[in-house]
Write a structure and sequence with these properties.
The structure is a single chain. The protein is of the alpha/beta class. It has one domain: HUPs (Rossmann fold, 3-Layer(aba) Sandwich). Helix content is 37%, strand content 11%. The chain is built from 8 helices and 5 strands; from the N terminus they run E-H-E-H-E-H-H-E-H-H-E-H-H. The chain is globular.
Length: 232
Amino acid sequence: MTQNTRAVVLASGGMDSATAAYEAQAQGYDELFLLHTSYGQQTEAREHDCAQALAAHVEAADFLHIETSHLSEIGASSLTDQEMEVTDADMDSDEIPSSYVPFRNANLLSMAVSYAEANECSAVFIGAHSEDFAGYPDCRPAFFDAFQQVVDVGTKPATSITMEAPFVEWSKTDIAERGLELDVPYEDTWSCYRAEAPACGTCDSCAFRLRAFQELDARDPIEYAERPSYVE
């Protein structure tokens, strides 16, 4: 039986999902269907531009952009609620950060599975990693295992779609190292929670990203308002 080489990649516009797309190609998936969603996040325009750039870089079979404004209307996240402050990074905290969007990944993966089933794809890739699930409950390995069961039960009998979170046990540094090996165009990715240009350099997402590059003694190619050192 010929391997199905079609896969959906959740493309946020960030470095993790970009690396996941290149990893999917490295694993033999040569027809990528990229799904990007805008949910009222403060940097949605820049993220959309970066997701579109990724689609061009990987010569995607399709690029689907969906508005998911209900996540903004639900609120309770500093990414979508203008009344909530995007805080500076506290990389040692065990608390769920204010940037957590309630149950976001379940919403996004549901759409990705619909997209995958409609296009006869055999996998859905997401770039979640270990430093994500330290703070975000819907990035834990157990969540993806449970969601796989939902997919198996909730799709057609002939459908076979695998949830792929290849970096779920990796650090951000591991992802950056793999991405540099794969020549991922990180200059066309965006991670900042606060600004569309330049990146702030101090929010959680900027801090983890900068630390990854700093630990690899590599320069992050995007522009920052400031580049604090996050390595000891």
